[in-house]
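Q: Given only this backbone (699 positions), what sequence would you predict?
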């Protein structure tokens, strides 16, 4: 069956695109639109043409799977131009999401009608691209330069109503879209309206001078730091304002091709598919029946428990909040309320909606009340004995088939599961803080966890708008296990002569949201110190005085980070801005002297490789051990949970862009010069194997 077809209703030709799942503009679709348009234009009985889509959405963009391969004619910009040049009126009838090339197709049409529930947008920037089928030239003509810039640079879709207010949609209807579109077409045919080309509109360019664009650059500087595409978008939109339409299109094409060739775009496209791939588990059928999750309980009303609970309540799912007494629960719910109040202030919800959502929380102090819960998530502090006790109680209280999850960030999920008589129903759901905001959810599969429970949690992750990644059981799972080497090297380098602020700046410039030492100050030096104490007590820490020495000394001095106004840095009263502290520099120098470490200048390049390459090396081990199913899962974890710059794709993708052999050789060099026999820099066998055969982790 053809993916594009032409039918007729009275004098209106209807072109229908039917290319599931999202009607992406594959070669067959582009070809189909062009040939149906030609047929409709050649048919004297047809007076106007409506372009609509079957299935769940209007066209969601170019077919991303075709990127990076040789493009075949007809090219998308030409398809859009043909719709614009059609002698008969063309109408786009939009439902679902008209995104990227889909919205560009709609803007090529002479008129646009949409369901009120529809959304439109140009999300190309999220793939490191700019709209390359006339979007940067047509949108400013439709809605003006400032709004077009904001929309294209943010990549965020907007509602049909908002698009209507801005001037990008002509009519909206509550339902019966096709009927509405045909009626619209009849109306205009009856008045003999001529084709209305967006390209014919003129932009008054004078008010948009250098200052205007510089001001816009400043306004996006923080979010756009390190990215390539936003600046190209600005240049393309400026071309729309300053050049004739045809020349603007050419400029757009050149800038689009520059973006397409960038590592940033390759990395972001890779992330797009990596996130979706993460939901596929080879030994668990995608369509295995999942369990309904309509009632959730969260054990622990602390910040983490409250944040986790918000994910469900925000979707209208009732949540029981369990803690030792009403006072603890009240305190927790007060924080939850404050978080929602912030949403009200920002206009994301109304005061009524806030009360409604708060009404979904049920305080519970007695486990017997959990008998109806479909999913229980334990979020108490990291203590194995306590967690086992809780799971024993849950086993007694919960109904058969309830999913029992732990939010542990490090502990052995199998040991926790063994505290119950139903290990097949036990799983790890590791949320990242703040749990109501961070996108990552590590889904920890115990050795007994059933496929059904696993698949239910994978689906659930998507439902609560998280990206779920499955990890096997090991200390720290995928993310935190890799973090160890990252921090270790930061601590080593300050002993070896790098300044605290230099280490952080080098990694900030690499693209991390903050350097590792500033992050420790934010998270609390005391938190890390307590974890190290436990690990030392458990014999799970290397016999190396250097490892953790400086943060431990800061801890003993009561320098816990931002909360005490001092940690690796100093903080003025009430400020979160780190200031280098000579006292810390002196302390580091003293310890280096005591240990006989000669301090030297360390380059930014060395800082980056010494912190980032351990991620790659540990990632390789995690892959070999089967803790992660694929390299791209590791990258999804690091981009979404730890702020690894998305435009670098994640540590494993980054290794491929640097060259696996180069990473391997550098790691071997560090082993020979820095390791002192601790094995920190022992290359992972998989890394060595790939380096030797010229292989890659991804792709
Ligand atoms: C562009 O248009 C460039 C032009 O300006 C210029 C060109 C010259 N292509 O996300 P889901 C697949 S750039 C191919 O799970 P949802 C996706 O991989 C493009 N495949 O569903 C998945 O496959 P699978 C601008 C695509 O309901 C399946 O569809 N457009 C594409 O949560 C379902 O996806 C965008 O960037 C595509 N364009 O969300 C839009 N899109 O089942 C990107 C999706 O095998 N897409 N697939 O894993 C989205 O944002 C979301 O997919 C959407 C649906 C909101 C549409």
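A: Predicted residues:
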């Amino acid at each position: 069956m053809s993916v594009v077809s032409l039918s007729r209703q009275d004098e209106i030709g209807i072109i229908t695109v039917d290319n599931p799942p999202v009607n992406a503009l594959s070669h067959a679709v582009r070809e189909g639109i062009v040939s149906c348009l030609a047929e409709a234009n050649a048919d004297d009985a047809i007076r106007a043409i409506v372009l609509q889509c079957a299935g769940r959405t209007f066209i969601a963009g170019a077919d991303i799977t075709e990127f990076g391969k040789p493009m075949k004619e007809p090219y998308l910009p030409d398809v859009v131009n043909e719709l614009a040049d059609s002698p008969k009126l063309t109408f786009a009838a939009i439902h679902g999401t008209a995104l990227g090339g889909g919205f560009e197709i709609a803007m090529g049409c002479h008129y646009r009608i949409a369901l009120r529930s529809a959304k439109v947008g140009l999300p190309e920037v999220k793939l490191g691209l700019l709209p390359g089928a006339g979007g940067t030239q047509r949108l400013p003509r439709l809605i003006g330069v400032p709004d077009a810039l904001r929309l294209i640079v943010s990549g965020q879709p907007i509602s049909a109503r908002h698009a209507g207010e801005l001037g990008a949609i002509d009519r909206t209807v509550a339902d019966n879209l096709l009927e509405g579109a045909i009626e619209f077409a009849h109306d205009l045919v009856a008045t003999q309206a001529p084709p209305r080309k967006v390209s014919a509109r003129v932009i008054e360019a004078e008010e948009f001078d250098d200052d205007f664009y510089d001001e816009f650059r400043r306004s996006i500087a923080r979010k756009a730091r390190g990215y390539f595409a936003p600046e190209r978008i600005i240049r393309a939109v400026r071309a729309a304002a300053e050049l004739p339409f045809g020349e603007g299109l050419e400029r757009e094409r050149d800038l689009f091709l520059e973006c397409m060739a960038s590592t940033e775009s390759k990395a972001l496209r890779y992330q797009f598919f990596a996130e979706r791939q993460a939901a596929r588990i080879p030994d668990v059928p995608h369509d295995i029946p999942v369990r309904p999750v309509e009632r959730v309980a969260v054990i622990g009303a602390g910040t983490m428990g409250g944040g986790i609970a918000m994910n469900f309540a925000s979707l209208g799912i009732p949540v029981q909040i369990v803690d030792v007494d009403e006072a603890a629960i009240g305190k927790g719910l007060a924080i939850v309320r404050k978080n929602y109040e912030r949403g009200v202030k920002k206009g994301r919800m109304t005061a009524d909606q806030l009360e409604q959502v708060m009404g979904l929380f049920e305080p519970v102090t007695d486990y017997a009340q959990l008998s109806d819960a479909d999913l229980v998530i334990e979020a108490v502090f990291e203590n194995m004995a306590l967690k086992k006790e809780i799971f024993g109680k849950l086993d007694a209280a919960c109904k058969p088939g309830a999913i029992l999850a732990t939010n542990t960030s490090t502990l052995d999920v199998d040991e926790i599961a063994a505290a119950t008589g139903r290990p097949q129903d036990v799983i790890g759901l590791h949320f990242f803080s703040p749990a109501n905001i961070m996108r990552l959810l590590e889904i920890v599969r115990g050795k007994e966890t059933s496929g059904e429970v696993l698949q239910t949690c994978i689906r659930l992750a998507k439902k609560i708008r998280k990206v779920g990644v499955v990890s096997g059981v090991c200390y720290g799972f995928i993310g935190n296990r890799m973090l160890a080497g990252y921090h270790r090297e930061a601590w080593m380098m300050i002993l070896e002569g790098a300044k605290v602020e230099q280490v952080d700046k080098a990694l900030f410039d690499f693209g991390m949201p903050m350097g590792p030492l500033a992050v420790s100050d934010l998270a609390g030096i005391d938190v890390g110190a307590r974890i190290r104490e436990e690990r030392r007590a458990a014999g799970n820490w290397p016999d190396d005085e250097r490892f953790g020495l400086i943060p431990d000394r800061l801890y003993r001095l009561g320098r816990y980070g931002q909360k005490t106004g001092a940690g690796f840095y100093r903080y003025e009263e009430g400020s979160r801005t780190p200031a280098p502290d000579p006292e810390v520099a002196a302390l580091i120098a003293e310890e280096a002297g005591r240990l006989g470490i000669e301090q030297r200048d360390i380059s930014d390049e060395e800082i980056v490789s010494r912190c980032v390459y351990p991620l790659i090396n540990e990632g390789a081990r995690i892959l070999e051990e089967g803790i992660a199913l694929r390299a791209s899962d590791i990258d999804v974890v690091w981009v979404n949970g730890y702020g690894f710059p998305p435009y670098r794709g994640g540590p494993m993708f980054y290794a491929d862009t640097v060259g696996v052999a180069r990473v391997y050789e550098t790691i071997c060099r560090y082993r020979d010069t820095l390791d002192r026999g601790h094995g920190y820099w022992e290359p992972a066998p998989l890394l060595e194997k790939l380096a030797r055969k010229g292989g890659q982790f991804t792709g």
